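User: These chains co-purify. Model them together.
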Amino acid sequence: MCSGRVDLGFVLRAFSNGMDGVFVGGCRLGECNYITHGNYDALAMVYLAKKILEHSGVDPERLRIEFMSSGEGILFTQVVNDFGNRVKELGPLGASEGLEPDTLRFRLEAARKLVPYIKLVERERLRLPVKSEKAYREFFTSDEFHRLFDELIADKLAISQIVSLLGETPLSTGEIAHTLDLNPSEVARYVESSSRQGLVRFDQENKRFVLA
Amino acid sequence: MDGVEGEAGDFKVRLIRKPRYVIEDKCTGCGTCVQYCPVEYPDQFNQEISKNKAVHIYFAQAIPLISYIDESCLYLKEKKCRICEGVCQNEAIDFRQKEERIEIKVGAILLSAGYEVFDPKIKGDYGYGKLANVVTSLDFERLLCATGPYEGQILRASDKKHPRKIAWIQCVGSRRVTPGDNSYCSAVCCTYTQKQVILTKDHIPEAECTIFHNDIRSYGKDFEPYFQRTRDLPGTRFIRSYVSVAGENPETKNVIIRYATPDEGVKEEEFELVVLSVGLNPPAGHDELSQKLGVDLNAHGFCKTPPSNPMETSKAGVFVSGAFQGPMDIPESVFTASAAVSQCGEFLDYRRGKLTRERLYETERDVSGQEPRIGVFVCHCGANIGRVVDVPSVVEYSLTLPNVVHAQEQLFSCATNSAKEITDTIREKGLNRVVVAACSPRTLEPLFRDTLREAGLNQYFYDMANIREHNSWVHSKEPEDATQKAKDITRMSVARVRHLAPLEEIELPVNKTALVVGGGLAGMTCALSLARQGFEVHLLEKEKELGGTARRIHHTLEGMDVQAYLRDLIDKVYRHPLIHVSHEAVITEVSGYIGNFTTTVKCEGGVKRINHGAAVIATGAEEYKPTEYLYGEDERVLTQLELEERIAENEEELINARSLVMIQCVGCRQEGRNYCARVCCSQAVKNALKLKELNPLMDIYILFRDMRTYGFKEDYYREASEREVKFIRYEPDDKPRVEPAEEEGRPVLRVTATDPILGKRLALDADFLALSAAVIPSAESKEISQLFKVSLGPDGFFKEAHVKLRPVDFATDGVFLCGMAHYPKHISETINQAYGAAGRTAALLSQDSVTASGAVCEVNEDACVSCGACITACTYGAVEFRETARGRKAWVNPILCKGDGVCNAKCPTNAIYLKHFTDEEIFSQIDAAVPEEEIIEPPKAAVGAA
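Assistant: Joint model of the two components:
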């Protein structure tokens, strides 16, 4: 199994389970055991996951990827100690972020549901032709990437969060906004578009939105 | 080795086996004895920079990974101590062991004696041994290493500080005719120095690295860009200068180096550390070895071999591989090893398989439909785990986990008696899943899988919880936390093992026929070696005649008569009943996979369909047709191959010429062809020497960038110099210019170039100009690469599976590579690699079947949406679309799948899954990482329900 097998879903599952940090270890870049260089896929996945975490209000520093060989025990110790200490500084998941556990859970749940869609988007729009650490860093920290993320994923995440929430109980726009820590006008826009897509509907009787 | 008697096919070898004082079968390499041993002495593996114990494991990757006791032991010296005996819980220490004499009978002997590193201490070169901060490159190699004396920190001896300013001195002990030095080039130092510079910059980014060098010999595959990468690192200087060490600064212990540059003259500079790039000597005891075996050595003390077969020694039945042939890099070493094996194979083919025994296992039990019955075995690993982790409490805890029906502790789970205990317990308690909580799966997983097979259980019903490397070794000071972590890790394994499925390994029959593509020297050598081992071979040649590029080469630098050799080889190929040659052959289609290929060929006899188990690509290379230096415009301008042909024809006009100029690196080591063509420097020296022999009065000039006459070829470069061949260096940004001119009525080619040492422009009048034109990939490479689904490197040569370790294999199983299709090379190197490819091919074809792993991908067709994400993700071409009753669906060829699972992470519907590492299996581990009681119970309603 290659580090490229590490699925975005694995990372989100771990955070959903309340893990305070996730570390992905891969072989050194450019020194693939296979011919796949799948560690670059792992790197891209981590960049994307960090962005999703950030968007969900989770400190992206809680996720780290490092590349090393099996002969680099000392480096591994250093990296893990460093990461462990950083996660300890951040405290339990949600603590440094000032997030309510419920809010956090809904947001991560929403992201998890979106994994299939994110995979499609990654393939269509976020994949790089060149396998170089520099190219990956430049792209995933570029304005272009942030723009693409906002355009392709951000709204979908919000809608997914709302759908998750309504799956449990009918809610008003204000309640949704409160739970998800969103602006009520944004929520209004999202529920409107989701009801057009037939995902949710307004229940006149209870004056609440419910799943369609 | 004490001595050898007998002859080829029937040797008796007397061996002396020194006592290890450790019983190999009992030692598990746990290292407890090492910790308790009171004797500290200089660690020989770490160049005596740091200390080790009298009982120790030689080095971290040693095979077998077990201890031995050396002569510094107190008991062996003074009959005291014996602490190790007391602390070894497996009773593996045995001081009664004595030197043993063994006699073995063998048919062939393979010498892989390697080399000895040049020792600059003997002559005190560059203050080594006197100045604290002068080290050899091997000392430095250990300093760089994570398992080295300072655990990967580069510290200098005088003050144990990180040096910031480091100098390398090249060619120490090499390329010199002074007594005690070697006249040859050690062939590997330029590139290993570059590696060390790159690693130094990784360790200490601000380090200033200076390399004092002569020629830079980056002649190997991918070496030129590697040199450029090193040169372009910030703070790195390559200075072409001889140097001397002028002493050390008494206060700082910095080393003062004196050197000269054309611009600044002689100057002195201080360095915090100086690394001597030492060369390669013949192996220690080579004289003794040669006497005992009766093999001849060459003038340098390496094994004497004929150029037509560098594996052959002067004694029949004794073969040589690796650096005992002469200085060589890792890839050459690897392919000469396979090559020597192929020759032993030719020699001993009639005994192939006579000593092998088939392993028989119990019939596998069908446990489908059974509830998981999990057994957990927790290993103490002597004291390695047991001293830190409370093993009994881990056992007790395991019994509380779901489906665990048996748990126990073991002193060493890997010991033979413990493995048997596991097998017995599986039978007695009807276990259908096993977890061993012990060490890393890297070493012992195969052993435990085998243990399951012994008990009739599918070997994939096994998981290994690593509570040693991941736990007790790193948390030795936190025993309570470590015990908790051992429980966590075991719980995760138990969770996973519940979901594991029995997997079947696929056995594929192997068609014992080989296809060799290319009838040049490489292809013919390979085909003949395979045929001599009893395999049928189809040899394809695109031309009307066999021979390839070798048809144009008449002799080698060492004096081998290439045409005579070639005639003989062609004759042998045609006469061999197992070789079928097709001329004017063009491959139109290749299908199949390892063991079972079908190739369609159009050739003079019509269309053939050839079924074969393996293929060897030996399609050679071509000489570049220059567009520079008036080539093609003026008939006095020739390539080196053309020059060689004209010399062979004894062309009068050429032989009687007054002056001839050669220009090196034509068409390579430049943009668009960023590699060194490896052979041209030696080719130029060869032609120059031949011309000097025929006409000693001829003025010959060689305009070069770096003379790359590596290895023993250096001696010929020196000889050419001595015979007054003039070598003039030019810079790539100031290439020579050529124009027709007239000198005292004689029409000449006037070559002008700048001599960087004199700083002046020189004008050379030549009757002939020979261009060392690049060797370029053959025109068919691209097509062949697509047909066989193998890749080409950035230079257009075929790309091997691993440039160092698998130099004749492709990433595609069952396809092998040799000759210039791989990279430009000399004839003897081509022969090395051709035999190497034959060795690798024979290793495959001698098996009746090949086994493909069970842990490969599969597609759930119901979930597949035919998006093709998995197909683009797979670099092995293992996934393809197939028509099914429900339309096009992805399908995985389990033979081609390597189980990396990259496709899984790309599939939007989780339709494709890697068996043994399914989402379900991994999720179960992720979920189990958090103990259930710690998971925050998600509230059923988020906000106050209406």
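The beta strands of chain A are 22-26, 63-67, 200-203, 208-211.
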